[in-house]
TrEMBL record:
Domain of life of the source: Bacteria
Taxonomic classification: Bacteria, Pseudomonadati, Bacteroidota, Chitinophagia, Chitinophagales
Protein keywords: Signal
Official protein name in the record: Outer membrane protein beta-barrel domain-containing protein
Organism listed in the record: Rurimicrobium arvi
Residues spanning the signal sequence: 1-19
Length: 205
């Protein structure tokens, strides 16, 4: 009888362990493993953002906490190009909080019509050539994973951009209508630089 009891207990234990193993395997199959895609393409946008009002960008994570990116878009001062390096505070496959440092270049615009700007002759519509502008920007980012495998990301950012060159432009026409101090201030507001607010979507490839 003792032998039968011992054999029964061993059979029950074996079946229990087998069932637990099968359940664990089934559970692991039902939950997709988190993926990490170091390369992504995205749609950055914002006010004073690196790519301007809207653009396209690419980012590559070359180390656990570091990535490099570049992109192009269009803004208030013509086409805009940027290169950026980011540091991610957590090792979470380029999600969570990050700090970015970027160089941006706006091409300027030729023969742009500026409506109702203050000149020495009063408010007038004037034609201008906007010269290229270079900036250095620093920003705080926060990324959220999207989708079942969290390989896509949504982000919000806030930062500040500083002009590396003077904001220059040429008022055209005859006779020339020089801008007043208020008119010059308006142009400085339109030029790249100052507060940066951004958002965007990046898709892991």
């Amino acid at each position: 009888m003792k032998k039968i009891a011992i054999i029964s207990m061993l059979l029950v234990s074996t079946l229990s362990v087998g069932a637990q193993t099968e359940n664990t395997q089934e559970s692991s199959r039902s939950k997709p493993a988190a993926a990490c895609k170091p390369f992504s393409l995205g749609l950055p946008m914002g006010i004073g953002a690196n790519a301007g009002l809207i653009g396209i960008g690419a980012e590559y994570g070359f180390a656990k906490h570091f990535s490099a990116g570049a992109g192009a878009g269009i803004g208030s001062w013509g086409y805009k190009y940027f290169g950026e390096a980011k540091y991610y505070f957590k090792d979470d496959c380029f999600k969570g909080s990050a700090l970015g440092l970027a160089y941006t270049y706006a091409t300027g615009i030729s023969d742009v019509d500026v409506k109702g700007i203050e000149t020495v002759y009063g408010k007038k519509d004037v034609k201008m050539d906007l010269d290229p502008v270079s900036n250095l920007a620093i920003a705080y980012y926060h990324y959220w994973g999207m989708g079942r495998r969290r390989i896509n990301r949504f982000y919000l950012s806030v930062g500040y951009s500083v002009c590396l060159s003077s904001v220059t432009y040429t008022v055209k026409g005859y006779p020339v209508s020089p801008l007043t101090g208020q008119g010059a201030t308006t142009m400085n507001v339109l030029a790249p630089g100052g507060l940066v607010l951004g958002l965007g979507f990046y898709f892991g490839l």
